């Protein structure tokens, strides 16, 4: 076997061509640090709740979500279950959800223009679509607008979702009537909201 540190000038691994331990160690440590940051980043990224069908399980797993939803409910009057139902339908509770075809992003799937409007109107300039608390407040704000502009009850998950998806102008025009898939989605949101509401009453998390 040929020694890595052979003293013979004509060896396959002469000193002029051998590894330099100091530099190798530095590079290895650099690689370890980079990998550590990547692993830490993946570990700290928010994950969807393990039981998305159960509002009580969601809030037990993520008590900070319950606080955020309750805060939004008190501020805007939109029930926690309607907030959850809309966010579930829009992003499946994924913080970085994106359809790719529009600027919709994050938990609430709000497009850039509407999100900017929300931040300007509420003064929450640092709000992020990737933060559940900000998403819940956004849903509360938008559904409050829908009630004031369109007369839609904040407890009406079906019509609130149609207005949320189509926008206030689109809802007035009835653009949703030509979209059977959207009407089905709105019914799903309404069912989510009803189920979540019953669950929250049973586990006394309202």
Automatic annotation (TrEMBL):
Positions of the Transglycosylase SLT domain: 32-203
Transmembrane segments: 24-46
Stored CDD domains: Lyz-like (cd00442)
Coiled-coil ranges from the UniProt annotation: none
Protein keywords: Membrane, Transmembrane, Transmembrane helix
Domain of life: Bacteria
Name this protein carries in UniProt: Transglycosylase SLT domain-containing protein
Annotated source species: Thioflavicoccus mobilis 8321
Species classification: Bacteria, Pseudomonadati, Pseudomonadota, Gammaproteobacteria, Chromatiales
């Amino acid at each position: 076997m040929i020694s890595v540190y052979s003293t013979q000038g004509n060896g396959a691994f002469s000193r002029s061509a051998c590894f330099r331990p100091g530099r190798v160690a530095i590079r290895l440590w650099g690689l370890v640090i980079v990998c550590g940051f990547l692993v830490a980043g993946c570990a700290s990224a928010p994950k969807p709740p393990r039981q998305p069908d159960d509002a009580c399980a969601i809030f037990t797993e993520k008590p900070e979500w319950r606080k955020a939803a309750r805060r939004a409910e008190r501020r805007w009057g939109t029930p926690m279950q309607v907030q959850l139902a809309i966010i579930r339908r829009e992003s499946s509770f994924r913080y970085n959800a994106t359809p790719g075809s529009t600027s919709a992003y994050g938990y609430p799937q709000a497009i850039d223009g509407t999100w900017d409007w929300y931040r300007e109107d509420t003064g929450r300039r640092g709000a992020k679509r990737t933060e559940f608390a900000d998403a819940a407040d956004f849903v509360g704000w938008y559904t409050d607008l829908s009630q004031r502009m369109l007369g839609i009850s904040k407890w009406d998950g079906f019509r609130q979702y149609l207005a949320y998806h189509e926008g206030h102008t689109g809802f007035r025009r009835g653009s949703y009537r030509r979209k059977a898939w959207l009407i089905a989605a709105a019914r799903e949101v309404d069912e989510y909201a009803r189920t979540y509401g019953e669950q929250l009453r049973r586990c006394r998390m309202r």
